[in-house]
Design the sequence.
C-alpha cells in the first residue's frame, strides 16, 4: 500500500473513533465524557503527566501534533501554554474544539496534515506529539515540518513505539501469533473472553486470519496496535529514532509503561512505572531533544524530502501493545 492510501485510511480510522473515545460510555462530548476519559488515561499512563511536567509551558507558543480529543491539550493550557492543536481528521478536531469550549479554555484546534503544516517558519516554542508520529506513513516529512515551524532553541517532546520492547519483541511476535491460530479451535474464543480479552476483537482476528493466513510482520504489527483493522503503524529502535530526529540533539531518554490490559485479567506489578537500566524493554521511551542549529535545519529540509522509515511498518490495519518513545527534543 502506498503512503498516500495508507494515510487516508489512518485519517478515516481516527475520524470514526478518535483516540481514547472508547474509554467512556458517558454522553459523547459532554463534560462528564471528557473528565471520564481524562481520569482513565492518566490512571493507566501516569507517566504522561510526568513527561509533560519536564517542560515549563508558561507563555510558550505550543503546537500539539495529534491532539486526539484534547485531554493533554487541557493539561498544557492549564500549565500556561498558548495552545494550537492539530488532527489529521475532522472527528478528532471537532472533539478537541468541543472540549476547549466546555472547559472555557483558550486554544485553537485545526484539521491539518502534519506533513504539510500551514504555519510560518519559527512559529512555535514547543511541539508536543505523544504517540502520533509512528502512525504517519511519511513520518520524516512530518518531522521536517515540525523542525521548520519550531523557533531556534525550541523543543520537541514526542513518543514513538519502541521496537525493543517486551510488547513488540515478545508479546506481538510470538504469543499473539500463536493465539490467533488457537482461535480456530472450538471454544477458544469463549475461553479467552473469560480470561479478560474482548470477544469482538478476538472474533475479528479469527475472521481476518481466515481471509489471509500469511501476512507479513508489518501487517501483523498494524493489526496489533489500535485494533485488528488498524491500517498503518511503525515501531522505532534507537537507530531509527536517531535518524528520524537527526536535526535535533537528544537531551533526555527514558522508557516507560507496559500496558497490563494486554494480559487480560492478569497483572504485572509496576506495569506503569518508569524503569532504569532495562527501560528499553518497556513500551514508551521519553526523549528530550534540542535543535542543532540553522545548518541542521537546512540539511533536514533536504534529508526529509525522502522518507525515514521505522524498523517495521505496515499498511493494513488488536490493541496498542507496542512500546513507544517520548522525546523532548530541542532545536
Sequence:
Amino acid at each position: 500500500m502506498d503512503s498516500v492510501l495508507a494515510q487516508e485510511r489512518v485519517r478515516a480510522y481516527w475520524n470514526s473513533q478518535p483516540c481514547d473515545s472508547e474509554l467512556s460510555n458517558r454522553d459523547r462530548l459532554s463534560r462528564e465524557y471528557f473528565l471520564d476519559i481524562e481520569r482513565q488515561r492518566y490512571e493507566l499512563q501516569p507517566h504522561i503527566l510526568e513527561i509533560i511536567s519536564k517542560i515549563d509551558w508558561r507563555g510558550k507558543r505550543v503546537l500539539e501534533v495529534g491532539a486526539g480529543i484534547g485531554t493533554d491539550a487541557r493539561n498544557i493550557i492549564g500549565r500556561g501554554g498558548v495552545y494550537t492543536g492539530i488532527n489529521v481528521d475532522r472527528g478528532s478536531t471537532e472533539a478537541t474544539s468541543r472540549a476547549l469550549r466546555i472547559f472555557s479554555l483558550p486554544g485553537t484546534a485545526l484539521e491539518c496534515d502534519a506533513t504539510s503544516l500551514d504555519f510560518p517558519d519559527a512559529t512555535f516554542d514547543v511541539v508536543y506529539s505523544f504517540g502520533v508520529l509512528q502512525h504517519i506513513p511519511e513520518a520524516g516529512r512530518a518531522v521536517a515540518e515540525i523542525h521548520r515551524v519550531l523557533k531556534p532553541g525550541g523543543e520537541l517532546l514526542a513518543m514513538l513505539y519502541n521496537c525493543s520492547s517486551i510488547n513488540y519483541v515478545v508479546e506481538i511476535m510470538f504469543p499473539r501469533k500463536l493465539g490467533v491460530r488457537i482461535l480456530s479451535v472450538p471454544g477458544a474464543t469463549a475461553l479467552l473472553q473469560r480470561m479478560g480479552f474482548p470477544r469482538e476483537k478476538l472474533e475479528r482476528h479469527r475472521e481476518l486470519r481466515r481471509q489471509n493466513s500469511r501476512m507479513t510482520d508489518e501487517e501483523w504489527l498494524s493489526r496489533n496496535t489500535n485494533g485488528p483493522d488498524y491500517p498503518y503503524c511503525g515501531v522505532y529502535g534507537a537507530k531509527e529514532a536517531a535518524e528520524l530526529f537527526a536535526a535535533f540533539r537528544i537531551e533526555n531518554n527514558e522508557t516507560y509503561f507496559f500496558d497490563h490490559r494486554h494480559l487480560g485479567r492478569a497483572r504485572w506489578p509496576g506495569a506503569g512505572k518508569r524503569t532504569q537500566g532495562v527501560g528499553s524493554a518497556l513500551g514508551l521511551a521519553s526523549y528530550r531533544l534540542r535543535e542543532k542549529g540553522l545548518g541542521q535545519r537546512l540539511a533536514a529540509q533536504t534529508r526529509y524530502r525522502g522518507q525515514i522509515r521505522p524498523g517495521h511498518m505496515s499498511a493494513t490495519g488488536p490493541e496498542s501493545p507496542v512500546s513507544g518513545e517520548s522525546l523532548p527534543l530541542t532545536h
